[in-house]
Amino acid sequence: MSGVSYAIPFVACGGIMVAAAIAFAPMSPTGPDFSHSPGLKLILDIGTAAFALLIPVLAGYIAFGMADRPGLVPGFVGGYIANQVGAGFMGGLIAWLLAGAIVLVLKKIKLPVFLRPIMPILVIPVISSLLVGFIMYRVVGIPVHEAMIGLSAWLTSIGDANKIWLAMLLGAMIAFDMEGPVNKAAFFFGVAMIREGNCAVMGTCAAAICIPPIGLGLGTLLSRKLWTEQEGEAGYAALTMGSIGITEGAIPFAAADPVRVIPTIMVGSVIAMPGGVPRANHLWRSARSRQVECTAIPWRPPAHKPRACCCMRPGGGRGGWAPRFGM
Predict the structure, then answer these.
(1) Does the reported pTM lie above 0.70?
(2) E strands within 3-57?
(3) How confident is the model at residue 316 (pLDDT cuts 50, 70, 90)?
(4) How far apart are the C-alpha atoms of 135 and 97, rounded to whole Å?
């Protein structure tokens, strides 16, 4: 897993830039507003570009670790295509396994002596890139896209029938591939529920999104002896990204040990989701109960000096808007 050490700087660079841009940008009801902050928007774009290179670099250098220098090109190509088709981290995992395996097979083919010098610099990269690209576009891309459409439709059909089980399922999906297609299906389901007037689902999704990077980052701080120096550096970046809801901070750890890390962060997110359901429902009900009253109540000046003016209500002596004071 030598590719992890090459990918960590991309995670740190992209995560810190994106976190800084979002932290200092003015907030609007729909999220950070960069329309009046061109400098912050530029920082956000640069950080996003660094993140866009994460999967190709990870796939390329892990394929390099498997098959030496000839594995670089098909690994990078496969990782880039994984981003294009929306396959995310799991698509990158398929890409680097394909690239490494195909190159190892091609290197075992016995050829005449005069062809051997051009094999690692021309023949193997071209043939392996063609094979990896074809599989990623035609075999991986279309099924992943169709599966995500079906998954989104199934989640919508579940609705609020069983909030706890739905929350656990969404938590596992969010942590499974860290901003990949499964993660995005759960995230956009939460967004769709906001449009339907239910903010509780998105509120619990927000809790599960932060768990993988924050949990792994805290692990590197609390038990330093169990982690390498590179993983310790990645932990700081993971904490920064987790604090603003960027799940990719967990990718270097998952790439280094997917068998243990992915199930662990899935369990953590599953625990976080049901725990957030009661709190999210309480906040949603409180917000609904505090909506502006629309009944026309004649207004009279308060007999005492008000401490605060919390909202406006219709009323006024002539049917206009008048301030509503509260203690």
Answers:
(1) no
(2) 27-28, 31-32
(3) very low
(4) 12
